[in-house]
Amino acid sequence: MAALRELELRNKGCVACRLRAGCARVVVADGDPRASLVIVGEGPGSEEDLDGRPFVGPAGQLLDRILEAAGVRREEAYLTNIVKCRAPHHRSPRVDEVQTCTRLWLEPQLARLRPRVILALGNTAAQFLLGTEQGVTRIRGQWFRSRHVDAEGGTYEALLMPMLHPAYLLRNPARALGGPKSLTWRDIREAAAVLRGEKEPAAVRGLPEAVPGGLFGPGEA
Ligand code: SF4
């Protein structure tokens, strides 16, 4: 845990890409560093930029309610993002920003955390963590085997489920059966049951059909 805290402290001083010049602060992570559940979003928004913690704005509050619906408290998870600095004008982070930030920070975070379950919220997180170009609406709710390097240079496998980002749910609030909200409630209940050991995933897939490294692979910068 000390190694993770030391990494987080160094992360707060990062100026390695252009995003740092346009934001108030580096938003590193929140939650339990011993958690077996890690939740990864795209990047901080304006509320997170002011507060310094991820998932505290309207989308974060909705995420809290989604977790609660499945009996998971926010404090039981470790929350972070693909990039740690707010991108200007609500744009998505660029490929080189994602590559730089994940190499310096997210991958070392995951190496120290060694979570059992990772929830990848939204396109950017799902596409980076699975190395795919497929959109999250196509692959959400499925379990994938996700392999990572650990802090000792070995590897470990986590179960990874892509889910819709709560910001997407705020833009698409329909509650109809089969709509984004009802699918998300189904997904989080499934994820929580697997996390608690109440069930095994019915099927765990390898990486989805993809170009090597997906949108964020080498040579894409
Ligand atoms: S987005 Fe990541 S790589 Fe870029 S300055 Fe912020 S912490 Fe550093």
TrEMBL record:
InterPro entries per record: UDG_Type-4/5, Ura-DNA_glyco_family4, Uracil-DNA_glycosylase-like, Uracil-DNA_glycosylase-like_sf
One Pfam family in the UniProt entry: UDG
One example of a Gene Ontology biological process annotation: DNA repair
Molecular function via GO: 4 iron, 4 sulfur cluster binding; metal ion binding; uracil DNA N-glycosylase activity
All residue ranges annotated as the Uracil-DNA glycosylase-like domain in the record: 28-189
Gene3D superfamilies noted in UniProt: Uracil-DNA glycosylase-like domain (3.40.470.10)
EC number: 3.2.2.27
UniProt keyword list: 4Fe-4S, DNA damage, DNA repair, Hydrolase, Iron, Iron-sulfur, Metal-binding
Catalysed reactions listed for this entry: Hydrolyzes single-stranded DNA or mismatched double-stranded DNA and polynucleotides, releasing free uracil
Family: Belongs to the uracil-DNA glycosylase (UDG) superfamily. Type 4 (UDGa) family.
Protein name: Type-4 uracil-DNA glycosylase
Lineage: Bacteria, Thermotogati, Deinococcota, Deinococci, Deinococcales
